């Protein structure tokens, strides 16, 4: 379990992480979603004691990561796949990390095998592809067989088979009652892997909900194609219904479900050529959330300029 | 990468301890090529220069009024070897910043002072070993040449033994000083500049300025420069040494003081910084 309370990180005047609080629960995969520069990596580095919070606290299973007697078994992390000396072999990189905790050679060979690196383990890391580097980073995270798995952009550079493997691994660890916290800027990836999503934008938490809750937001729209769009718009034009048009003859209607639209159109004699309920995806929800955030930012800037 | 089920043989009780950190740093140091290169360079420079000087003495032994003390021959390579081992100490830290592996290290071992302490320990022991082996080899190579000229090093002569062993200690302190600089500066090029500047360029600069201006107080400061003071330990035969009025061991102690300062500053900033 990861618990952040009032976590803040400032770099000079810039606030990278702005007073965020959240809990990442065991037994589930929690996605950490946000555009680049939103504060995902900074937050993960603070969890691991790599960055010092300007304010607030963050604990793993009740204590600060740096205070535990055996950090590698408490939490394993993939932070930066490039964080390896290019002149060292994959095996020696893992051996050096394992040595800090006296983890035996057998375990090193196990994680090498598990991540499919057996064939290249003795090769110098400098020649690794991005995907191989990513696998090595995941191998390092698994070394201590940790209770908490923290993965920053784990599927970056992986081939489709590798992506599927990471997904299975994350689900497997969560299934064992462990805590899995993985960041991504790919909504589709999080939707497939995570049970719970924390969305961050500009250092603030925009949403903290289950995937189902986020997707099930009552913003369901219906696409309607008709020969008489203006008449249909006038017919449905009432409170709580919003209508937009992206192409001639095509309306997107929210606030009235497909059955209502069909009934009213029939009674007015309007022919409908298409009537499609548009299921909201996590991506829609995510874009809606971050769009608001961006609008808020530019509004604030304009207001500032207006007062000058 | 297909199976997820796994065995988990992580040992009975994994623990982050200082001896474990030392072992980890030793694996890191010995598994990169630069360490091997620097070790070989040091050995080559120390042995090569000693052999060349010993051989060169043949030409001047008869004419010179004051023969070169043989311990000086052994330690002559130190001036160059210190640069190689200084680089070894600096990049033991800076290379982890250059390629980002410091993050992997600290994510596995978040006790920062322990990490830096283990690094300094491993670099210190490794340097001492390389320097001692180099000196002994230089001795073995130059001795037959010197003996035939009648100026062999006398192992019963405490002064000569002090000079030879002191040279190895001097090199160790230079490497440790550089570990501190590496942790403070964090950039390879910058750290090497500082180390070369302090141990190589600074004394030369002082000598030039001194030759022009001839200031007394400048000469006194010169005697307390890290390299000048530290190299006092290698003086033999009361020859006035390397331009410092300090006793041999006092000189080495001054260098040890600078090293302690560098490492203390390094522990403070390394402990406070992010990443």
UniProtKB/TrEMBL annotation, chain A:
Record has Secreted as a keyword: no
ATP-binding is among the record's keywords: yes
Keyword set, alphabetical order: ATP-binding, Nucleotide-binding, Transport
Domain ABC transporter: start-end pairs: 2-227
Pfam families with a match to the protein in the record: ABC_tran
Family: Belongs to the ABC transporter superfamily.
Protein name, UniProt field: ATP-binding cassette domain-containing protein
Species per Swiss-Prot/TrEMBL record: Agromyces salentinus
Top-level taxonomy: Bacteria, Bacillati, Actinomycetota, Actinomycetes, Micrococcales
Automatic annotation (TrEMBL), chain B:
Keywords assigned by UniProt, alphabetized: Membrane, Transmembrane, Transmembrane helix
Membrane-spanning parts: 36-57, 69-93, 120-141, 161-185, 192-213, 249-270
Protein's UniProt keywords contain Transmembrane helix: yes
Highest taxon of the lineage: Bacteria
Pfam families: ABC2_membrane_4
Name assigned to this protein: ABC transporter permease subunit
Native source organism of the sequence: Agromyces salentinus
């Amino acid at each position: 379990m990861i618990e952040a309370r009032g976590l803040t990180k400032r770099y000079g005047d810039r606030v990278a992480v702005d007073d965020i609080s959240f809990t990442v629960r065991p037994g589930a995969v929690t996605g950490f979603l946000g555009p680049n520069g939103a504060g995902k990596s900074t937050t993960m580095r603070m969890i691991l004691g790599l960055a010092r919070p300007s304010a607030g606290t963050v604990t793993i299973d009740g204590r600060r990561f740096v205070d535990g007697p055996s950090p590698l078994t408490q939490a394993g992390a993939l932070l930066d796949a490039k964080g390896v000396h290019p002149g060292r072999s994959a095996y020696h990189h893992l051996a050096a990390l394992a040595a800090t905790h006296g983890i035996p050679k057998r375990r090193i060979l196990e994680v090498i095998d598990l991540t499919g690196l057996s064939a290249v383990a003795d090769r110098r890391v400098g020649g690794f592809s991005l995907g191989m580097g990513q696998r090595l980073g995941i191998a390092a995270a698994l070394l201590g067989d940790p209770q908490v798995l923290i993965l920053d952009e784990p599927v970056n550079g992986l081939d489709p088979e590798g992506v599927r493997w990471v997904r299975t691994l994350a689900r497997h660890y969560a299934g064992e009652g462990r805590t899995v916290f993985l960041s991504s800027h790919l909504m589709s990836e999080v939707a497939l892997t995570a049970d719970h999503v924390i969305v961050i934008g500009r250092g603030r938490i925009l949403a903290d909900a289950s995937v189902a809750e986020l997707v099930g937001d009552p913003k369901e729209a219906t696409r309607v194609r008709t020969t008489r769009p203006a008449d249909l718009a006038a017919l449905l034009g009432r409170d709580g219904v919003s209508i937009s048009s992206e192409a001639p003859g095509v309306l997107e209607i929210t606030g009235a479900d497909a059955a209502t639209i069909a009934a009213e159109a029939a009674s007015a004699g309007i022919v409908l050529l298409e009537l499609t309920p548009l299921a909201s995806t996590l991506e829609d929800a995510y874009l809606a959330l971050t769009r608001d955030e961006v609008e808020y930012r530019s509004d604030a800037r304009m207001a500032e300029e207006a007062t000058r | 990468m297909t199976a997820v089920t796994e065995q988990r043989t992580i040992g009975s009780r994994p623990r982050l301890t200082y001896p474990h950190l030392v072992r980890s740093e030793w694996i890191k140091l010995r598994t990169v090529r630069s360490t091997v290169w620097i070790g070989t360079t040091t050995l080559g420079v120390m042995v090569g220069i000693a052999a060349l000087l010993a051989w060169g003495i043949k030409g001047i032994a008869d004419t010179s009024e004051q023969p070169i003390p043989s311990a000086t021959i052994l330690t002559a390579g130190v001036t160059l070897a210190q640069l190689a081992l200084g680089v070894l100490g600096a990049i033991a830290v800076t290379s982890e910043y250059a390629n980002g592996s410091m993050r992997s290290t600290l994510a596995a071992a978040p006790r920062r002072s322990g990490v830096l302490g283990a690094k300094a320990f491993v670099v210190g022991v490794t340097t001492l070993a390389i320097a001692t082996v180099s000196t002994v080899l230089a001795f073995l190579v130059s001795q037959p040449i010197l003996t035939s000229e009648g100026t062999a090093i006398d192992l019963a002569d405490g002064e000569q033994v002090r000079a030879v062993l002191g040279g190895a200690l001097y090199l160790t302190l230079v490497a440790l000083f550089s570990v501190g600089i590496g942790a403070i500066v964090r950039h390879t090029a910058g750290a090497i500049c500082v180390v070369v500047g302090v141990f190589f360029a600074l004394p030369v600069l002082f000598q030039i300025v001194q030759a022009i201006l001839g200031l007394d107080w400048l000469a006194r400061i010169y005697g307390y420069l890290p390299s000048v003071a530290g190299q006092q330990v290698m003086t033999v035969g009361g020859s006035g040494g390397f331009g410092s009025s300090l006793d041999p061991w006092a000189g080495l102690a001054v260098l040890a003081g600078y090293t302690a300062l560098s490492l203390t500053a390094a522990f403070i900033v390394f402990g406070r910084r992010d990443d």
